Amino acid sequence: MPSLKRASQAGLTLVELVAVILMVSVIGVLLSYSLAESFEIQRTREAVERAKVIATTIQFARRSSEDVGIYEGNLGRFLNANKGSDVWDILGDLDTTREILDRPQSTFFDIRVRPHTVFVSFSMDDARFQSIQFPAAARSIATDADDNFQSVRYTVIPDAARGLLAAHSLHQFMNEKEEK
């Protein structure tokens, strides 16, 4: 009888030990999930801050277009004037730029900011629609079946400084345009 009692006590202790291990594991998983979520929130905040810098740049161009007119040619000259610079990296994908430079129609800006990505759209008079995105993902180009939409992904903004440089360059370009 005493040995049965000891065995049953040992069994309870083993069950309790397993329960404690499971509880610690669950708490560990929850903590690691919470830390990962917190890290992801921080990364999203940083991406949104970078996105805001780019959005400010494009919004400035959009506001200015109401005053002095950013048409296809003006945007093309701006891109050409900044070849090889951070501005070119940000706005100057060759296919997109060639599309803009080769078209006589007016070009209009539209922007939307979402976590990790700024969508900058160039809409043309003939309803062709191009969107330049600035995400935290690998650069890729995708075109749909009827060739009416092209998506160009960029990862050329490692920090806000490059976005600020682009904003400064665009402001400078627009100021020179207004002076002429």
Written account of the structure:
The protein is an alpha+beta fold and 180 residues long. It has one domain (48-179). Helices cover 61% and strands 15% of the residues. The protein is built from five helices and five strands; from the N terminus they run ααααβββββα. The protein has helices at residues 2-67, 72-81, 86-91, 94-101, 160-179, and strands at residues 108-114, 117-123, 129-133, 141-143, 149-153. The chain has a five-stranded mixed β-sheet, with helices on one face. β1 and β2 form a beta hairpin. The radius of gyration is 27 Å and the shape is elongated. The termini are far apart.
Record keyword descriptors for this entry.
180 residues, alpha+beta, five-stranded mixed beta sheet, 5 strands, 61% helix, 15% strand
Number of domains: 1
The Cα radius of gyration reads: 27 Å
Arithmetic mean pLDDT: 49
Structural class of the helices, strands and pairings?
alpha+beta
How many helices? The count is 5
| SSE run | HHHHEEEEEH
What percentage of amino acids are in beta strands? 15-25%
Low-confidence stretches: 59-80, 84-165
Please tally the β strands and state the result: 5
Distance between the amino and carboxyl termini: 105 Å
Q: Give the overall silhouette.
A: elongated
* Assembly category: single chain
Query: Biggest sheet: strands side by side, in what order?
Result: 1-2-3-5-4
How would you sum up the major sheet?
A: 5 strands, mixed
The amount of helix comes to: 55-70%
